User: What shape does this take?
Amino acid sequence: MSSMKAERRGQELIDQEGALDQQFASRSITPEALKDATVKIGVTQADCRTRISKYHLRNGANSLADQMKQYADLRGYNSDAPARHHRAH
Assistant: This one.
C-alpha cells in the first residue's frame, strides 16, 4: 500500500470526524446520521490501524522494539532519573 493511499485514508478520517463535529455544532445531527457517521469513522479508523500495523510487520519487530526502547528512554522509564520533559518544571 503506498504512502499516498495511507495519507488519503488518514485525511478521509479527519474529514469524517470534522463532518461529525460540524453536525453537532450546527445541531443538525440525528440518531440515524450519528450511527452512519460513527460506523464510517470506525471502518476508516480500523483501516488506518491495519495499515500502520502492516507497516510495522513489514519492517520487522526489531525496529518496533527499538522505537519502544527510545520512547521509554525519552520518557525516563528506563532509569531512576526523572524524564527530560519534566526537568524544566
The chain is about 75% helix and 0% strand. The chain has a mean pLDDT of 83. Residues 31-58 form the longest helix (28 residues).
